[in-house]
Please model this.
Amino acid sequence: MEKRIATPTVTREILADYQIRLSKALGQNFLIDGNIIEKIVNIAEIKSGDQIIEIGPGIGSLTQALLERIEDGRLFAIEKDERMVQILKELFQAEQLTLIHRDVLDIDWPEFFTENALLDKPVKLAANLPYYITTPIIMGLLEARVPVERYVFMVQKEVAERMVAKPGGKDYGALSIAVQYYTRPEICHIVPPSVFIPQPDVKSAIIKLETNEIPPVQLEDERFFFQIVQAIFQQRRKNLKNSLSKAANIRLDRELIEESLQEMGIPEGTRGEMLDLSEIGQLSNILFKGMEDKVN
Ligand code: SAM
Model:
């Protein structure tokens, strides 16, 4: 494909040629602004030889720019809509591109990395994500702990704000904790609806997540930590003592909760959403050790 796909004219031409009606259900809002594409590619610092995974390539506006930069690298593009896969096959013949016709939520990431010999190489993810499944896509990737060095995503602005949120505000929650435990998130640009066809009802943001080599808090047990996070934020209006003692996913006795809060010098009436990542980590470590001591 010689022409720039990320322009209103070429995008409309391709959609008309293939008689495509875009699907709202699949979050199909296509980028038509070359400057925004350039920003994504620059923030991802895409260079020759890179191994890239793109989720939801659509008709290839970002794919085109990624392919130009990677030269002898590899690009894996995962797309659910068969119509898009057909278009991409016709538009791009580059041997560096592997098109994968799958629902991204069905991908077993460790298996995917092994099968594609990606485990020993630095991998980057770049995508204008389908907004209706942003959180499950990001959580699935982070929890899989595959060796991705950097993620650059276009997401709904509100979701980007939740990822970078600090304690106390309404945006702060389980997503903030998980993203900030695994990565260092940064909102790089706020993007208006006018750069998409069709225009979404919301503003967007380009977010960069840089993977943490060493987690910002040392945990006794990661699974237990995330159970505590879930307990705290599922009942975020409750104080810590109540939300932890009523946690559906773990059985903690009230005495242990009281002792643990005391040890950390946290007043019992404090709400969990006031604690930062390292305080929640510390609390989960104390509770975990307390439970172990009880068993032994
Ligand atoms: N990258 C293109 C662009 O920027 O113009 C398209 C981005 S559009 C916001 C999201 C893309 O994700 C669409 O092409 C849509 O078909 C695809 N998609 C939606 N749900 C998907 C899923 N579960 N798995 C893989 N791709 C999906």
The beta strands are 30-31, 51-55, 74-79, 97-101, 123-128, 148-156, 183-191, 196-197, 204-211.
